[in-house]
Amino acid sequence: MKFSCYKNDLTEALQFAIRAVAVKPQTPILSGIYLHAEGSMLEIQANNFFTGIITRIPVNVEISGEVVVSGKRFQEFVRNMPDDTITFSDEYTNNTLTIESGGASVELLTMAAGDFPKVKTPETDNSFKIRTTVLRDLIRKTVFAVSKDETRPVFTGGAFELKGNKISLVATNTHRLALAVEELHENYSDCNFVVPAETLRGIMLRIDPKDVENYITVNYSTRYLTFTFDNVFVNSRLIEGQFPPYDRVIPSSSTTRVNVSTADFKNAVEFVSLMSKETEYNTVKFVFSGDGIEISSNSPEVGGAVKNVEAQVEGDDLEISFNVDYIADVLRVIDSPRVHIALNDRYSPAAFTEPENENYIYVATPVRA
Predict the structure, then answer these.
(1) Rounded distance between C-alpha atoms, residue 71 and residue 80, angstroms
(2) How do residues 298-354 score in pLDDT, each as one tens digit?
(3) What is the pTM of this model?
(4) At CA 60, angle to CA 58 and CA 61, rounded to 5?
(5) Do residues 257 and 244 share a domain?
(6) How far is CA 43 from CA 3, 35, 153, 205, in A?
(7) Domain count, the chain
(8) Secondary structure letter of residue 366 according to DSSP
(9) 242, 228 in Cβ contact below 8 A?
(10) Co-location of 238 and 131 in the same domain
(11) Are 286 and 294 in contact, with CB atoms under 8 Å apart?
(12) Backbone phi, then psi, for 103, in 5-degree steps?
């Protein structure tokens, strides 16, 4: 096998594929990346049996062939090669892939390509199409809210729900919740399923936010789901379990309503968060009143920080505390120049929305401070 390619193309493809390389492989082959060069394309595969990824990039092939190399090491050396073009060859060596670029050279031991578990297309019952950038936005505005607690697997993924021409994605760790809804171009059968967060993050990474014309085909069954677009194929095992009714935690009314600049609020929260990191639960206190918003945090060992933000506050004055990460995270994905906050009392969840977008809501539970 011998081929050459642009470093940037391969680096981007490997950054995506590496997500399906087993972290603690049962066998050495699962720690590898499969490479197949033929015609004018290089096919890259990774498979950990929960997620399988295939991606292809254009290359200049002199000799066709296939090989498996250590995924982590291969990615590291490709990323650090000095020139824009890289040449790969196992032409003159046994069980070794030679990588050359700009006067630098490295040899990586290879594994038998025949032993690699190729990514297969599972049998699926249903499918739908969604614009790539629409799916990217659904993921971007929700996936950060998933749980990291592996003892409750259903909360470690994003729950999709399809009803007619509406698709929603919701994520929660039971202390906060993010819900985004979008319209599809046609009606589909009602369904729901939970996709691992790591799979969703990988898809989001691979989608070009400027590519507004392409569509992703999503095929799914009771156990598996696949994403197909451009030169990418992703096969993911779904998370088993019933996602609870999320609409019950979304507040239906409020006694305090806030309209504030997203940028000003975000900057103030991030400033005070420097002090909150010294507290046990990253706690920040918010005081909403006719004067605006006062944000503060105090640490007995370090000191205190406070920042005031101009805002339109209607209804009751309110003092309430949150884990600062729960507020900072949502402000990073809000697309509107202003954000609305609806509150009731210091013990009830707060709802964050965009003024001109009824299809997104974020709910955060306060800290009893």
Answers:
(1) 14
(2) 988 889 999 999 999 999 999 999 999 999 999 999 999 999 999 999 999 999 999
(3) 0.92
(4) 110
(5) no
(6) 12, 6, 32, 19
(7) 3
(8) P
(9) no
(10) yes
(11) yes
(12) 85, -5
